[in-house]
Amino acid sequence: MISVPAARALLKKIADVRVLVIGDIMLDHYIWGDATRISPEAPVPVVDIARDTYTAGGAANVALNIAALGARCTVAGRFADDEAGTHLSKILADKKIATISTPGTGTTIRKTRVLVQHQQLCRLDRESAPAAYRIDPVAVEKLFAKAIASHDAIILSDYAKGLLTDDLVATVTRLARAAGKFIALDPKPKRALAFADLDLITPNRKEALQLAGIEPDPHNPFPAEKVCARLHELYRTHHLVITMSEDGMLLSTDGKIGKVIPTAAREVFDVSGAGDTALASLVVALTAGAKIETAANFSNAASGVVVGKLGTATVTPDELLAYIKK
């Protein structure tokens, strides 16, 4: 675990960091209520709604986590001219997060979760087909070149909704490399997105196996050495951090196994958005000059706070320092 003085010093440096997040933004809508009877129309519960709450999801939640830790942030994604887009823009503006609306015909992605007595009953998704979020390859450089130059780090946040394509990733990576900027990706292997020469990727255990093309074997330990070597061979990523749930974080640099950071979580209430927190805190720490082990311990503590909250959530510097102190 990172010490309080080390975390405080790192947070001070993070305040000067500027991060550009490009990816699939969403509005997370929560309907809270209670269910005490079954509908006479069908064998389903009747939910008496008490309240609605809204927060940023997907790539927009990564941005919220960056801003919550004190860094400056811009998020780029599809903000359509609709109710969800307006609501999401206001949430981000209230946190002083700048926005870049990408062209397209897709609606603003909205995920509505119905919760009864703090248990999720169902989820309702509103989104367009992936093609509706894609950007013309010719427009990518014009849209992002200036923003990349004015930020210290770029995060590509892929939720497999369509915005991130091979062309976009290649162009953004080229611009970031040319400008000497840190670039990270949270991949979704089911999309088989092409990428290479990044500073950091943060798959979970299942995603790491998929990216490496290795079949999971429930009867044997996770093949860490083989996975890390294979991922470096395929993608030439400098840092690899595999989030391992209750087993913590596995670190690898240039294909070689590093340390395993034990989980810092003391109470797990909801893992929604924990990956966003891990990615955001790793990137701001590394961009602020932390070594990979220090950054991972910092990120592990931040994730430990967030999984103790319900729904997609963020961690503030005060919450983080208090958690470490305990």
Automatic annotation (TrEMBL):
For the Carbohydrate kinase PfkB domain, which residue ranges apply? 19-317
Q: Name one GO molecular function term.
A: heptose 7-phosphate kinase activity
- Report whether Kinase shows up as a keyword of the record: yes
Note the InterPro entries from the entry: PfkB_dom (IPR011611), RfaE_dom_I (IPR011913), Ribokinase-like (IPR029056)
Keyword field contains Transferase:
yes
Task: Provide the alphabetized UniProt keywords.
Answer: Kinase, Transferase
Q: Pfam families recorded for this chain?
A: PfkB
Coiled-coil intervals, chain numbering: none
Which CDD domains does the UniProt record give?
RfaE_like (cd01172)
Gene Ontology terms: cellular component: cytosol
Note the PANTHER family from the entry.
Answer: BIFUNCTIONAL PROTEIN HLDE (PTHR46969)
> What protein name applies here?
Carbohydrate kinase PfkB domain-containing protein
